[in-house]
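Re: duplicated header lines in exported structure tokens

Our pipeline writes sequence and tokens for each protein into one text file. With two proteins the header for the second block appears twice in some exports. Here is an export where it did not happen, for reference. First protein block:
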Amino acid sequence: MRFSRRRPEEPEINLIPFIDVLLVVLIFLMLSTTYSRFTELQITLPAADAEKLRQRPAEIIVAVAADGRYAIDRQPVDGRNVDQLVAALTEAAKGRQDVVVIISADAMAAHQSVINVLDAARRAGLPRLTFASQTPNGAR
């Protein structure tokens, strides 16, 4: 009996299951990814050299000092209670439409002083309020 020696078989890598798995992963990623389109219009805006005219609404500036004193449109208010502030705000707003109250409080002013101005503006029927601030370099 003659036994022949077998040659060792070279291992084969079957790529078909590997490709199937990759296609399934690819299809999954394609379906689960959201695509967003950014539509963009190329436009050229007109330019103007003139300064824009600002129409400012009627303003009442209420200044609150660090020690709790008040001034409405640079006129000092006698006393520090809410009723006197209401009377002064009502007088300042007389005959004006859509008045905006600007509260300009000192950084060291007591919180209660600012709350008194807010309460007085509400009682005077002035619902539009804003706060003045200053940029770090000192420009307003």
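Second protein block, exported in the same file:
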Amino acid sequence: MNKNRTLLIAAVLLLIFAAVKFALFFWWQNSQPAAQQAVCDLRQGCMLPDGVYAKADRKIPTNAPFDIELRNVPAGVKEVSVSFSMKNMDMGFNRYGLADEGGGVWTARQIRLPVCTEQRRDYLADIRIGGVVFQTAFTAD
């Protein structure tokens, strides 16, 4: 009888844990700012809608590290990051923070694209500047 009671308590605790985890995930997902679409080729460099210039240091490879630089980032911005995904495919957590180099320049060095098991090369870059997110599509080399 004690064993059954212990199993019942463990099952109830697991259900509570799962419900809390689901609620927190749902809250986190809904609290993320919606991405603004930007027509931007990171490989050649481009201007985002807010006037920030974004550029990768070279063609973006699928199997080697590369750098990204943003210029004209407004003063007062505390955090800049970039993450990569694909349409209709979960790529896991891969957010890279950019370092403030001063003068409105932020850089991320030696970053890598997440690996696609289906050999796709059509990526989306989410560039987060403060509380604003710009999403741009590109094809990796």
